[in-house]
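Hi support team,

I'm filing this because I wasn't sure whether my run with uracil finished correctly. The job status page said complete, but I'd like someone to confirm that the output block is well-formed before I use it downstream. Pasting the exact inputs I used:
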Amino acid sequence: MTNAEKMEALRGEIERCRDCGLCETRTNIVLGEGNPDSPLMIVGEGPGATEDATGRPFVGRAGKLLDEALGELRMSRKHVFICNILKCRACVIDGRSVRNRPPLPAEVKACTKWLERQIEIVNPKVILSLGAPSARFIMERDFRMTKERGLFFPSKFAPAAIAGLHPAYILRKHGEEFEEAKGSLVHDIDSARKKVIELKKAGGEL
Ligand code: URA
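And here is everything the job wrote out:
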């Protein structure tokens, strides 16, 4: 089976998952997308409203910013595999309004087996976490974004792991602060891309 076929088989399993309460409120599971053969995997937190509605990761405003950051490096989704820790949207339904909420620890615990299976399939050389929750899971420790973003750390999931600012966090900034935060995301994606090249060279693949 190709990695793409394995990923599609996994989609079927996740669609049947009822291991936490998020299955009750989801419209679609959000598996991930991009190139399942890529040496670079980008891991976010979880689907929001647009992702839940479409079944695709990072397709709302935060996703547009991520696409722009990739575009500044002449990259696109076909150069990476993008997914999340959570496959279903964590939300509060309050009458007619539906709001995102942070996932409960039990929901994260129930869901990470799917991300682990995706990492096994893609077998990336580098994982770029977007946001502290993703970094905490990938590095398996507390992670302080202000001090540790942009640096490489070992991970049991990949030869190298790095974390950058989450695009949704960047969108809350304005003016110069926004430009600076966006620049840091571009920089961290570029570092991850360069690390892939370095690791391939060291392994005799280039
Ligand atoms: N934020 C995430 O972390 N993931 C998405 O897919 C969308 C927004």
